[in-house]
User: Which sequence fits this backbone?
């Protein structure tokens, strides 16, 4: 028995969202009686942090503290339309919609403040701490709470805004087949190092090194948690998980977590991540979205690392010990490739 | 079938319920007592989401017959915080971004608590071993392991 080390690399060019059909998302922003703001969405936060990120985007656009914004989401009875949380589209699509809605609400808020301070709205600015004041004259100031109260009780205005983000439709050119399926691309590169046992066919992860270019990281800690966790979903797809191990024959499929395998805490390896921020021209504050791209480069990198370790090329996922052993046997033994 | 009277301690409080024969502890806790912190993941002991402590020992409540806890002490995630103050492990999970969807979190916290109660200064390998019965889909485990280690080294507010 020999354990062979191998290293593989993969790069991905990842489109954010799905543009067929325009991929729209809507957002509504309004001020509450307390002078704080609510963002209504139908988009769903599954734990990736979209509630936090849309809250930040709304607060930054309105010019109010992040504590003053509440995000009400995942209820299609009360929220406006959203395509959903998939295809890494949340931060980019929903974020853009929230930004548009917050911009409109900010316009009403500044007009209401201008009326109270008896100045031109163009001469006002927000301090990000809950106050609006005349540019260059911070003492001529009014709190956003007092603006909301004045709008509600005196001026008869709703401080609110509507936002939608819709990508222009791109039809397929019948002559060339050319089209623009996406407006925004993120990028990733990952190097995986594995150890392959040529007697059992088992593949162990040794380490991963990656670089992700994802526009501006609006919340760096949330981006990091996506990248750390998502990479292991990629490993899981590469080496463990499948509902159809004998596709298309459904028998002997996994029925539970004893048969449907996933990595456990003992299977993980060190993963060094570099985040490159190159703001997207059409992203909210330059953001793209880490999303699915966290997992994608892992699969080809692991397959390449296995080839590098024992010389077998497996293109059917997941790469189980059985497949590795059969392939090694078919080529008459492990053939480690040169390491570069 | 006749129901059986069952008394035990739930997070330090005496409770009495009537259970059908064969009712498991997870169902008793969630449906009869109303403690929703232990989660139903797989119902067959494969995921750890339903983990609770029975007399201080880690158990899978989905595989435990409710009647076997008669007279014993059952501790769930609902009981580990001190009033409004989070347990040091809960604080560490939040600080280390150790939860995303949150479904595995109650089980992870109970497994971690069982470890720190008997071994306040565990090694990384001991933490991995302690949570090895718990599956997490989102975090890649690394933030959870770091959270448990930081709760251990940060000292413990409560025994």
Assistant:
């Amino acid at each position: 028995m020999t354990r062979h080390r191998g290293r593989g690399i993969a790069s991905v060019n990842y489109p954010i969202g799905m543009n067929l059909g325009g991929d729209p998302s809507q957002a509504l922003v309004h001020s509450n009686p307390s002078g704080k703001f609510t963002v209504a969405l139908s988009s769903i936060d599954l734990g990736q942090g979209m509630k936090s990120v849309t809250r930040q985007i709304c607060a930054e656009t309105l010019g109010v503290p992040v504590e003053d914004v509440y995000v009400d989401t995942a209820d299609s009875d009360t929220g406006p339309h959203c395509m959903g949380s998939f295809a890494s589209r949340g931060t980019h699509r929903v974020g853009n919609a929230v930004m548009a809605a917050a911009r409109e609400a900010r316009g009403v808020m500044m007009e209401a403040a201008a009326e109270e301070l008896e100045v031109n709205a163009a001469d006002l600015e927000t301090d990000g701490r809950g106050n609006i004041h005349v540019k260059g004259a911070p003492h001529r100031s009014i709190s956003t709470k007092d603006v909301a109260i004045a709008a509600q009780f005196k001026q008869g205005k709703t401080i609110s805004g509507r936002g939608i983000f819709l990508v222009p439709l791109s039809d397929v050119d019948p002559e060339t087949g050319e089209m623009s399926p996406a407006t925004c691309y993120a990028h990733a590169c990952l190097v995986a190092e594995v150890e392959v046992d040529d007697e059992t066919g088992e593949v162990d992860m040794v380490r991963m090194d990656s670089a992700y270019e994802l526009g501006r990281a609006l919340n760096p800690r949330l981006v990091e948690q996506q990248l750390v966790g998502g990479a292991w979903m990629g490993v899981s797809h590469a080496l463990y998980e499948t509902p159809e191990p004998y596709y298309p024959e459904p028998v002997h499929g996994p029925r539970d977590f004893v048969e449907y395998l996933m990595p456990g805490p003992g299977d993980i390896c060190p993963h060094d991540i570099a985040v490159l921020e190159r703001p997207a021209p059409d992203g909210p504050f330059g953001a793209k979205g880490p999303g699915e791209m966290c997992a994608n480069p892992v699969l080809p990198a692991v397959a390449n690392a296995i080839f590098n370790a024992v010389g077998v090329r497996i293109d059917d996922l997941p790469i189980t010990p059985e497949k590795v052993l059969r392939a090694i046997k078919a080529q008459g033994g492990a053939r480690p490739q040169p390491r570069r | 079938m006749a129901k059986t009277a069952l008394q035990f301690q739930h997070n330090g409080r005496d409770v009495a319920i009537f259970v059908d024969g064969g009712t498991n502890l997870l169902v008793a806790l969630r449906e009869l007592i109303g403690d929703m912190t232990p989660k139903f993941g797989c119902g067959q002991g494969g995921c750890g989401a339903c983990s609770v402590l029975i007399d201080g020992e880690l158990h899978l409540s989905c595989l435990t017959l409710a009647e076997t806890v008669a007279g014993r002490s059952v501790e769930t995630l609902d009981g580990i915080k001190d009033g409004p103050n989070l347990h040091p492990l809960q604080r560490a999970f939040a600080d280390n971004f150790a939860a995303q969807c949150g479904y595995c979190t109650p089980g992870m916290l109970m497994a971690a608590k069982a470890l720190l109660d008997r071994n306040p200064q565990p090694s990384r390998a001991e933490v991995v071993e302690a949570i090895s019965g718990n599956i997490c889909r989102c975090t890649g485990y690394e933030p959870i392991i770091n959270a448990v280690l930081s709760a251990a080294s940060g000292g413990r507010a409560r025994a």
In short: The two ends of chain A are 24 Å apart (CA to CA). Chain A has a mean pLDDT of 94. Helices of chain A lie at 50-62, 90-117, 144-155, 220-239, 298-310, 321-330. Chain A has six helices and eleven strands.
